[in-house]
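Working notes for the structural subgroup meeting. M.R. asked for a predicted model of this chain before we commit to crystallization trials. I am recording the input and output together here so anyone reviewing the notebook later can reproduce the run.

Input as submitted:
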Amino acid sequence: MSDGKAYDVALYNDAEDKLNTIYIGKVKNIIKNIDAAFVELSPGFLAYLNLRECKDLVVLNRERIEYDLRQGDEIPVQLIKSAVKSKKPICTGRFRLNEEAKAEIINKAKTRTVFSVLSEGTPEYVSFLNKINLSNVAKIVIDDINIFEAVSAYCSSNNAEICPTLYEDDYPLTALYKITSVMDELKSKTVWLKSGANIVVEHTEALNVIDVNTAKSIRDKSDNHILKVNLEAADEIMRQLRLRNLSGMILIDFINDSSENMKIVTDRVKKLAGNDDIKTEYIDITGLGIMELTRAKKGRPLHEMI
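Returned structure, recorded in token form:
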């Protein structure tokens, strides 16, 4: 939040998104034509395992021959990539640990049952804190005691000047900070601007398209009405790119205006792109007057996660 407006939203799925966690999984099935096995990490939670990475796998419930993996095998694996759309999350038998820690995990696995968690990955909300400059943060407010304790420990171990606040009021935190209304806005294709104009955000497999419309905006007495709407739209579009975590090719159809005014809009977009934490580049304006941007991919867009 900044100046009462949301600028970044990160969603965390506690049930599935436990990256770097090490489980004792059970091989559910093997599909040799795609060199894959599907491993059940907890009841009903399947992950993809590349069979070409199976040479050093430890099988806990039987003696194993090199490269031999069977349905029903109980194996320690680490979750390394979240699910994307219809694709399963990805696990590996090559732990992201040093040799000593790896040996410890294998010894621990020999005394545990299938679906046991051998090592917890860092929760996404703690990883998130690692990515931001906490000296720029005014406050951290948390309404979950477990998350509060984990974040408090993180701040303490990193000598952060900020300490989180545990919110215990009966009035929901999501209502206090209008988080529910922000999420409703992010589920909608249309975003209304103060002027009465709007922007419409559409997604395709190849790119994202954003259309600017005068809609209900009323022309004022000045000659720069279109410029004002386009500048207001530019500010909101760049905010929405961050909020929705859109990436790849982004095409923006601003309202047609003079070349002088469009240069002012372009300069505004370039400046805002430079302020984005994720690399965002202005490319060009096409012959049809469509502005082209690219934005680096970092995680999944919100419309996929929702």
